[in-house]
Amino acid sequence: DAKTTQPTSMDCAEGRAANLPCNHSTISGNEYVYWYRQIHSQGPQYIIHGLKNNETNEMASLIITEDRKSSTLILPHATLRDTAVYYCIVRESNDMRFGAGTRLTVKP
Amino acid sequence: GAVVSQHPSRVICKSGTSVKIECRSLDFQATTMFWYRQFPKQSLMLMATSNEGSKATYEQGVEKDKFLINHASLTLSTLTVTSAHPEDSSFYICSASAANTEAFFGQGTRLTVV
C-alpha cells in the first residue's frame, strides 16, 4: 500500500509555478521522499528526492516540512511538456510503491 | 540521469506462449531491481523486488510461477511471463537502483496476448 496521498489532478498556467503537494504522515526516519513523473506510455522519470532538507536541481525544488509529514514539489516555470502524472513516493531501500499520483495539466 | 534499457518495447504473442522481457542498467550496477505492471489509466503496481543473486520477493497476489524473475547479474534482470493469456496484456516496467540511491526506470514493454 502506498504511504502517500496526493490530489487527483491539478491545473497550472504555462510559465507559472506548479506546486504539487504530498502527504506522508506515517513516514519513518529512514525513509526518503522521492518524486517521479510519467508521461503517457513511457516509464517514469526521476525528478528529485530528499530526506529532511529542502532540495533543488535543474528540474524542480522539493520542500519538506520540518515534521516530514508532507512535502511540496515545485516546478518553477511550468511548460506544456510538464503535463504528466506526478508521483510522490516514500521509500526505504527495498520498497518502492506508487500511489495514484497527481495528474498535472499545464495550460497555455 | 542513469540509463535503464528495457527490451522489447512492444511484443505481441499468442496465448499459451512465454515472453521474456529484459531490463539492463547501462551505466551503473543495480543491486535492486523492481518490476511493475500498469493497466490503462491506473498507477504502477509493484509485482516483485529482486536483489542481485537472490530470489525475487513477490507481492501478494502475484504468481511467482507465472512471472519468473531472474536477477543473475548487477546489470541485468529478466521477467518471463509464462503461458501468457489475454488477461496478462499490460504495460510492464522495470526500474533499477544502486545501493541507497534513486531508482531509474526503463521505457516499458507493452505486451499484447492474442
Indicate the topology.
The complex is a heterodimer of chains A (108) and B (114).
Chain A (H helix, E strand, L loop, with lengths): L8 E5 L4 E6 L8 E7 L6 E6 L4 E2 L4 E4 L5 E6 L8 E8 L10 E6 L1
Parallel strand pairs in A: 1-9
Antiparallel strand pairs in A: 2-7, 3-4, 3-8, 5-6, 6-7, 8-9
Chain B lengths: L3 E4 L2 E4 L5 E7 L6 E7 L6 E7 L5 E2 L8 E7 L2 E6 L8 E8 L5 E3 L3 E5 L1
Written account of the structure:
The complex is a heterodimer of chains A (108) and B (114). Chain A is an all-beta fold. Helix content of chain A is 0%, strand content 46%. Chain A contains no helices and 9 strands. The model of chain A has no long low-confidence stretch (mean pLDDT 94). In chain B, the strands form 2 sheets. In chain B, strands 2, 4, 5, 6, 9, 10 and 11 form a 7-stranded mixed beta sheet that branches. Chain B has a 4-stranded antiparallel beta sheet with strand order 1-3-8-7, with no helix packed on it. Chain B has 114 residues and is mainly beta. Classes of the chains: A mainly beta (108), B mainly beta (114).
Give the low-confidence spans of chain A.
none
Helix content of chain A: under 10%
Shape summary of chain B:
globular
Structure classification of chain B: mainly beta
Mean pLDDT of chain A: 94
Helical run tally of chain A: 0
Pick out the low-confidence regions of chain B: none
Task: Identify the notable features of this structure and list them briefly.
heterodimer, A: 108 residues, mainly beta, five-stranded mixed β-sheet, 9 strands, B: mainly beta, 53% strand
Summarize this, please?
Helices cover 0% and strands 46% of the residues of chain A. Chain A is an all-beta fold. In chain A, strands 1-9-8-3-4 form a 5-stranded mixed β-sheet, with no helix packed on it.
